[in-house]
Specification:
This protein is mainly α and 261 residues long. Helix content is 75%, strand content 0%. The chain has one domain.
């Protein structure tokens, strides 16, 4: 085994889980699905991506294959983003397009961090820009931008945000705005590299609380709504990815400013 961090292990297990679910229930894996219906053999693409997710998740846990797995997962996610997600900005409403792009950016950012960690000599010679510190900084930017969007979405779509807050929790509007503001603040901190480690860890904690307090109770209550199961799976994947990003700051002081990162 070649485990770089707890986040690495959690992310690898999440990829294995996504792969298994994707092969069994294609409609429940929003990381890979949907592929535009206009794409030839779009269902085959989803199955192939799920298989890659399963294989790379296992590969990331094995010393001999970690580098290859990191390369393959990073390349596949980047391909998915460029070919199947970014074009949504041209064909769908902006808010919907953002929801299709930014969650995938979080997963891609985590895969990029793992690629940097496991880059071999060949990568550092031929792909130095994306496999070294520059690549790590870009990955963090790709994480910071979605955090800002996630936070802004709490204000843009207050009604749906309020509907997800547990009934037993008082002050629903306060929590909608507070968590939205927290995401925005964390995203900005990551982008400007100011207290970025603290921000990344708190953002991961907040994503974990959403999973624990919102989505798990919904599916545990016996929900048969595919969307709710899909969102639960996505939230778990986002938590695993956020954990990897937080781990990438492990050598950075908690309250470091820009000059120390």
């Amino acid at each position: 085994m070649r485990i770089a961090s707890i986040g690495h292990a959690v992310f690898s297990i999440a990829m294995i889980g996504l792969g298994i679910v994707g092969l069994l229930y294609r409609d429940l894996v929003p990381v890979w699905n949907p592929v535009p219906a206009s794409v030839t053999a779009h269902e085959l693409f989803v199955s192939l991506a799920a298989l890659i997710s399963l294989a790379t998740g296992i590969g990331l846990l094995v010393s001999r294959t970690a580098t290859i797995a990191a390369r393959l997962l990073f390349a596949t996610l980047l391909f998915w983003l460029l070919l199947f997600r970014l074009p949504n900005f041209l064909h769908t409403a902006l808010f919907a397009a953002c929801w299709s792009v930014f969650p995938l950016l979080v997963i891609l950012a985590a895969a990029w961090v793992l690629y940097v960690w496991y880059a071999a000599d060949w990568d550092r010679r031929h792909l130095r820009f994306i496999s070294g510190n520059n690549g790590l900084h870009i990955a963090r930017v790709l994480y910071g931008l979605p955090l800002i969007f996630f936070g802004a979405a709490h204000f843009i779509d207050v009604k749906d945000t309020l509907s997800l807050i547990p009934e037993w929790l008082p002050g629903h509007l306060f929590w909608a705005y507070f968590t939205g503001s927290a995401f925005v603040a964390a995203g900005i901190a990551v982008l400007i590299r100011f207290w970025a480690r603290l921000a990344a860890c708190l953002a991961a904690l907040q994503i974990g609380l959403f999973l624990l307090l919102v989505w798990i109770p919904i599916v545990a209550a016996g929900s048969k709504v595919a969307f709710q199961w899909s969102e639960t799976i996505l939230n778990a994947a986002l938590l695993a990815a956020a954990w990897v990003i937080a781990d990438s700051y492990r050598d950075t002081p908690w309250l470091a400013g820009n000059d120390l990162q």
